[in-house]
């Protein structure tokens, strides 16, 4: 009887562990309908027309010297349990406006258009002392005079 109970618990734990670790698929961002993009005409459609057809953008350009750009970003990912996410599909639509807020150009970038960027590992030196763990914890003991008001 004990062997049967032990085997049943072992099989149950194994089933729970296996079913808990399945692929998780996630979609995030703005899913753009190609028919809606086809309605936008460079040189004719303005910002109001873009909002009417596509809605608010995911992001807006920071530096709008020659007109601003709107970005509609979407991504599909999958991952297994706690492992890193794998990007299955990625789409960025860039709508650039001229100085009169009329569409100048529409660009569509997919996952293959992306580029990997190397991150610089340098750190900027700062002035002052580097305090150790205990110096940070006990550094203020005795610095303040509670009787002085």
Explained architecture:
- It is a single chain.
- The model has no long low-confidence stretch (mean pLDDT 81).
- This protein is of the alpha+beta class and 149 residues long.
- The protein is flat.
- 26% of the residues lie in helices and 28% in strands.
- It has a domain at 22-114: Beta-lactamase Inhibitory Protein, Chain:B, domain 1, CATH 3.30.1450.
- Strands 1, 2, 3, 4 and 5 form a five-stranded antiparallel sheet that branches.
Q: Outline of this structure?
A:
The protein has helices spanning 2-20, 34-38, 47-54, 133-138, and strands at 23-29, 59-60, 69-80, 86-97, 103-110.
Strand content: 25-35%
CATH topology (fold) name of the domain at 22-114: Beta-lactamase Inhibitory Protein, Chain:B, domain 1
CATH architecture of the domain at 22-114: 2-Layer Sandwich
Order of helices and strands: HEHHEEEEH
Instruction: Give me the Rg, rounded.
Output: 28 Å
The helix/strand class is: alpha+beta
In DSSP terms (H or I, runs of 4 or more residues), the helix count works out at 4
Mean pLDDT: 81
The strand count comes to 5
